[in-house]
Amino acid sequence: MDFKLPVIPSALALALSTTVSAQGVSVGEAISEWPQGQQDTVQMMIEKYGEPSGATNDRVVWTESDGPWDETIVYREAIEHEFPMPHEDYLEQSVFLEVPADKMDELSEFDGSIIVYRTEGRIAARCDKEAANFLALNLAHDIINDDKSVERAREEYADAIREMLSGTTPEIMSQLTFEPMDQDRAAAADVSVIDPDEQPSGVAGN
Question: What is the pLDDT of residues 52-76, one digit of tens each?
């Protein structure tokens, strides 16, 4: 999914060079040796969501933006992904949403770049474009709610990407079509199976 990126304004380039990360270096310094695609994505996220919450040599993270995401991460390292066409995954964006255990296999079959942090109550999509993450999570939500089969969701994913390649971005790729949950509703803390009396003092379970 290789699309031409907009020219980044000089003011934004200045912001990249001056925004300070948690490690005391600027974002520009942190990503200076990253592949160009990942650098461009960091710039686009700054333009859209403002300064990141932190940056290291392997990732840049937003956790307090005004956008729809609970968390956005741009990774230095990309993962090769062939569906629905060859591309690299390095932009992960997540929301809080309850995912029943019996839907985990279906979500994995739909798209291996859907990541479920079920205990925490977070579901994420990792691709190379924010539009593709909107698409993946919207279709994942439909699978969770039995509104679409895995096969139908994969077909609609590919159709939407074809439409974007033709120059038109469908609505399903421009925003979330569902309301994310509060974390306390989405989280699945599971059930303890070990009596507290069995645990040695000061030892916590995993």
Answer: 999 999 999 999 888 999 999 999 9
